[in-house]
Amino acid sequence: MKKILAMIVVLSLALCAGALSEAGAPLGQTMPDFAFTTCEGEDISLSALLEEKDLVVVNIFASWCPPCRAEFPEMQSVYEEMSDRIEIVALSGDPDDTNDIVSDYKAEMGLTFPMGREEGTGIADFLNLEAYPTTIVIDKNGVVGFKQVGMFANAASFKGALDYFLDEAYDGTPAAAYNVYVCDQDDHPVPGAVISFCTDETCLPMTSADDGTITFTDKPASYHLQVLKLPEGCSIDEGFEATCEGDGEWVFVQVKRDPSCICD
What we know:
By secondary structure, this protein is an alpha+beta fold. About 20% of the residues lie in helices and about 30% in strands.
């Protein structure tokens, strides 16, 4: 009989600085209007953007931050698909990042959304900024509906956060991020794992991607996780229990992968 191993740990997303805290999270609050000058010299305000777009995404980054650099290509790919309805504003919160540095960074990364500096906007104070990157989604009514501290795992997780607010069923309720990473005993990703997210009313089965992640955005709830299926050669403790609260943290599901596993 196969030896079975399961371990659940809850860890914050990789951050460049600071610790994750719910204090000061502005969900449900109206975002104060702000203005900034892009690294190309264009003046932009939140109120003007909301007259043209259905959503405004504000990302606070730093040029030296590896997770920021990792998520920008994912954001760019979604932006190219949805720029008719959304605007992304990326502002450096590092006072040492000059306009020239931001401009060079933007060109190097091949980014096309507006970028500039956070200084003078008041955004960092409003968000109680503690880490890079930090991202918020502002809905059509100017209300902060979503906040994530740390990088998005992939384009799908970023797009999922936006789709929540663009859906016709959106009723103004702030959203929460639910993040699960399925890995083996050597911390390698396990794709193809089917995990069900259950509340008292419903269950939502989802499958881990090639990078082992399951990410989605929905109304705040407490989900009990059930492992429905694992790839051949992978096993998990029958007593497995975990809860995903949607607070922006990751739940790690570690399974035993035998040498015979074909899930690569």
